[in-house]
Amino acid sequence: MKKYLSLLLLSGCLCLSACQSAYYGAMEKVGYHKRDIMLDRVQDAKESQQDAQQEFSSALEELQSLLAIDGGNLEASYEKAKDEYESAKSAADRVSDRIERVEDVADALFEEWQAEIDEISKASLRNSSQTKLKETQRLYNTLLKSMRRAEAKMPPILTAMKDNMLYLKHNLNAQAIGAIKGEFGTLKTDIASLLKAMNKSIRDSNRFIESMSQG
C-alpha cells in the first residue's frame, strides 16, 4: 500500500511538473517569459500580504468591539467578529498560495538562466551574467525568507481567533466575553508583530521588483 501511494505521489508530481513546463512554454510563445511571470507573481504576493494586513487588522478591531460591548446586541457583534475572522483566514490562504506560485516560477527561471549561462562561450559575458544571477538569487532568497517568516505568524493567530469564536458561540454572554479579555492583549501583540513582518516582506518585494525591472 505504501509503495502504491509513493508511486501515486511521484506520478502526481511528475504530472504537475509537466503541466507547469507546458504552461511556461506556452506563455513564452506569446512573448510572456518566466521573468515577466515572476515579476507579476511577486507583485501578486505583495498585494495579498497588503490585503491580509487589512483583514487581520479588521478582525482585531471587531473582536475588540465585541469585548468592549456593554449591553446591546451580542449576537450581531459576534457575527461581525466571526465574519472578519473568516475573511482573515481566506486572506492567509491567499498569501500562502501566492508564495507557492512565486517559488514555482523562481525555480524554473533560475534553472533556465543557469542553463543558458552555461551555453555562453565568451568568458566575460558568461561571468557578467553569472554575477547578475547570483545577485538576483540573493535578493530572492531574502524576499522568500521574509515572506515565509510573515506567513508563519498567521496560523497561531488564526488558531487563537478560532478558539475565541468557538468559545463565544456557545457562551455568548457578558461572563464569557470577560473570560477571553485576558487573551486579547496577547492577540493584539501577535497581530502587531505580523503586520511588522509583512511590512518587511513588502519592502523586500519592492526591492526585488525594482532590481528585476532594471534588468
Kindly summarize this structure in a few lines.
The chain has 215 residues and is an all-alpha fold.
Description:
With 215 residues, the chain is an all-alpha fold. The protein folds into two domains: 1-32; 34-213, Up-down Bundle (Four Helix Bundle (Hemerythrin (Met), subunit A)). Helices cover 90% and strands 0% of the residues. It has helices at 2-29, 34-68, 74-117, 123-152, 154-170, 174-213. Helix 2 (34-68) runs antiparallel to helix 3 (74-117), helix 3 (74-117) runs antiparallel to helix 5 (154-170) and helix 4 (123-152) packs antiparallel against helix 6 (174-213). It is elongated. The mean pLDDT is 88.
Q: Name the structural class.
A: mainly alpha
The total of beta strands comes to: 0
Give the overall average pLDDT: 88
C-alpha Rg (nearest Å): 23 Å
What sort of overall outline do the alpha carbons produce when their principal axes are compared? Answer: elongated
Largest pleated sheet: none
Main CATH class of the largest domain:
Mainly Alpha
**Total helical elements:** 6
What's the helix-strand series? HHHHHH
Domains (count): 2
Helix content bin: over 70%
Percent of residues in beta strands? under 5%
Q: What fold name stands as the CATH topology of the largest domain?
A: Four Helix Bundle (Hemerythrin (Met), subunit A)
Low-confidence stretches: none
First CA to last CA: what distance?
50 Å
Q: Under the CATH scheme, which architecture of the largest domain would be assigned? A: Up-down Bundle
